[in-house]
Design a protein that fits this description.
This protein is of the alpha+beta class. It is about 20% helix and about 30% strand.
Length: about 180
């Protein structure tokens, strides 16, 4: 869920693609993980590598893993993490990616022992079944903010998408509201 960017003109598309390729955009996601994220863990700088798991149908399932730094197939990946809010025994994280690798957030958080709640590829499968019984029907990862320059005017834009109702409701299931004001996300 979250911000989705669509270009109406080819000229806008190519300008936007240039911004993404040159890492001139800012992409921040919200992810819920079980446990309290360590406050001193703010940067994950671990290389990633794509691989295939044979599935018997000839193609295979695409996966990503942490790679050795000297591996020629490794791609550098940098993820910034900040705790937005503690929700009971969980941490709602603001995750900003500095590189845009496949499954980067999912693999980086899982590699630190904090898989995203509901992640069916890199998460805790038994735990995710329990979360489904509590009402979470999807992975708790949301494209929250996107910062970029307007492709025609050059104006700096920040696009924001609030958490969808089903994720807000799941947070309330984990920690019912106390009546105290909470900064909106």
């Amino acid at each position: 869920s979250g911000v989705l960017l669509v270009a109406k003109k080819r000229s806008a598309l190519t300008r936007l693609q240039d911004q993404f390729r040159d890492r001139e955009t800012g992409k921040t996601y919200l992810a819920l993980v079980k446990g309290q994220w360590p406050s001193n863990k703010k940067v994950i700088d671990l290389p990633l590598q794509r691989y295939l798991i044979p599935n018997g149908a000839g193609e295979g399932e695409r996966r990503v893993r942490i790679a050795a730094k000297d591996d020629p197939q490794a791609q550098r990946a940098i993820t910034l993490v900040r705790v937005a809010r503690l929700v009971g025994d969980y941490s709602l994280l603001e995750v900003t990616i500095k590189t845009g690798r496949t499954h980067q957030i999912r693999v980086h958080l899982a590699s630190q022992g904090y898989p995203i709640v509901g992640d069916d590829k890199y998460g805790d499968f038994e735990y995710n079944r329990q979360m489904q019984k509590m009402g979470l029907k999807r992975m708790f990862l949301h494209a929250w903010k996107l910062q970029l320059r307007h492709p025609a005017s050059g104006e700096n834009l920040q696009l924001v998408s609030a958490l969808p109702p089903e994720l807000q409701q799941f947070i309330h299931t984990l920690q019912p509201p106390t009546g105290e004001p909470v900064a909106p996300l």
